[in-house]
Amino acid sequence: MAILNGSDLTLVKLKDIIFKEEKIRICPDAADQAAKSRAAVEKVVRESRTVYGINTGFGKFSDVTIDSEDTRALQLHLIRSHACGLGDPLPETVTRAMAVLRLNALLKGHSGVRREVLDRLADMVNLKMDAVIPSQGSLGASGDLAPLSHLALVLVGEGEVWQEGRRVRSADVWKEHGIRPVVLEAKEGLALINGTQAMTAIGALNYLEAEQLALQAEWIAGMTVEALRGITDAFHPAVHEARGYPEQSEVAKRMLGWLAGSRLATRQGEERVQDAYSIRCIPQVHGASWQVLGYVKEKLEIEMNAATDNPLIFDDGETIISGGNFHGQPIAFAMDFLKIGMAELANISERRIERLVNPQLNEGLSPFLSPEPGLQSGAMILQYAAASLVSENKTLAHPASVDSIPSSANQEDHVSMGTTAARHARDIITNVRRVLAVEAFCAHHACAIRGKDNMAPALLSKWEALGSVTRPLDEDRVFSKDISKLERWLLEDAGFTSPA
Fold it and tell me: Keywords for this entry (predicted)?
């Protein structure tokens, strides 16, 4: 049971909730704090004070005062009008994470929602009522308005949720469980949709996948080192300590661990003096990607525990301030940075693939790893496919965060495009996994040619695990099937039972 209190949610906890289906519970102290902020909202309504989002319009309509008897209608109109997302639905894992993160943000006690709203969000997670939310349509400020509006529609019984792969009306599922949908009161619609939980949910699941891919990239690279009779001296700890980046040193240490006991890897001068950069510089390049991951993790875990709506309530209601915590710039930057860091793992992997298949570079392996060069093409076009993906990544890696477009009649005149950055990062991560699957396939076959019994014990274990999914390249076949199987295996091996 994961207890949410608005302050200490981590990526590891989130992974357990999303992929291990761990139930969540609301921390009583956090609920009490939320109740105080709700009392402040109700006091504003009673006293007919003019406060943005409670009894005013939204965006450019912020100067329009709303009568007290219309505050309920105001909130419902808000989420209906803002639920204009476009495109294919986000994965269920992402929308479940959005519900968790939105609940956690409201539990900080600055948003002014009733306990009923908090409970229904928890119910959505615990009952696996994963909202159907279109993937496009957010500018990333004022937060993720369109995606979060689709989430809020579920709470009021007007949205759709996934049930056993089907889209069904949330009202029907609430009724099935004997639970009444929420009737929104003053400020609650705004509190539900004014935040960064779409980009942060996508970003969090991106990070979780990326972290595991970075680890998998190391043993896959290790297998390539063996296949190419690579030199292990380049991973000597003294080399990396001399530079000073701990992430680089840690990659080198793990590479030596994977290669320990190998009779295929060589020492300096045995076969050649030094390897090409894609082999020799694995710690430097992969280590730099780990530096990116460290930055991204820090920013995500701050945002996962942040109050990101507007206005925010402080001092038990004595202070209510309109600010801009909904602006997604920190996550936009983090996702753009993640795109670059992950794209590089694919770039260097594709160069290792080229070395495995190119007869001028593969240290005596058959051309394109073909069992009958000329009659059979072997892995020739697999390298093409990998090259296509890394080229696509270069386009996707263009930063979304440097763009902005004014909205709401120029009231909201600078936006983050953070959700676009997160979505593109997700696409890059998928491409990276596919490129690594190609390298794993080629290295698996190349090590079979070299003699798997001479492999390092740790890498032999991985070789055998891959053998349960694919077989060496003994004849030409439809290799896309092998790569699809390996892609799925890498995902499951990393602890993801479905695409995040």
Answer: Cytoplasm, Histidine metabolism, Lyase
3 state SS of 194 = coil
Query: Does the annotation count 52 as an active-site position?
Result: yes
Query: What is the CATH number for 264?
Result: 1.20.200.10
Through-space distance between the first and last CA atoms of the chain, rounded to whole angstroms: 21
* Model pLDDT for residues 78-131, shown as the tens digit of each residue: 899 999 999 999 999 999 999 999 999 999 999 999 999 999 999 999 999 999
The pair of structure tokens assigned to 423 is 């979505």
Residue 145: predicted pLDDT: 94
Where among 161, 177, 195 does a domain terminate?
Answer: 195
Cβ neighbours, 10 Å, residue 343: 23
Sign of CA dihedral 425, 427, 428, 429: positive
Q: How far apart are CA 23 and CA 423, in angstroms?
A: 27
Q: Which domain-ending residue is among 179, 195, 211?
A: 195
Decide: helix, strand or coil at residue 412: strand
**Phi and psi torsions of 412, nearest 5°:** -105, 80
Degrees, nearest 5: CA angle 289-294-299: 125
Catalogue the long-range contacts made by 448-452 (C-beta closer than 8 Å, 24 or more residues apart). 448/472, 449/227, 449/365, 449/366, 449/369, 450/226, 450/227, 450/229, 450/264, 450/365, 451/264
Q: How far apart are CA 422 and CA 252, in angstroms?
A: 30
98 within a domain of the structure (yes/no): yes
Same domain assignment for residues 245 and 161:
no
C-alpha to C-alpha distance for 91 and 147, rounded to whole angstroms: 12
CA distance linking residue 395 with residue 409, whole number of Å: 31
52, 207, 295, 384: which is the annotated catalytic residue?
Answer: 52
The whole-number pLDDT of residue 231 equals 98
Global pTM reads: 0.95
DSSP-based three-state secondary structure for 427: helix
| Average pLDDT score over residue span 46-75 | 78
Shared-domain flag, residues 38 and 108: yes
204-229 pLDDT, tens digit per residue, is 999 999 999 999 999 999 999 999 99
The range of the structural domain enclosing residue 486 comes to 203-493
pLDDT digits (tens, 9 = 90+) for 236-269: 999 999 999 999 999 999 999 999 999 999 999 9
The rounded distance, in Å, linking the Cα atoms of 21 and 1 is 10
Quote the pLDDT of residue 500: 42
Position 498 in a domain: no
For residues 218 and 286, membership in a common domain is answered with yes
Q: What is the domain count for the chain?
A: 2
- The enclosing domain of 62 has a CATH number of 1.10.275.10
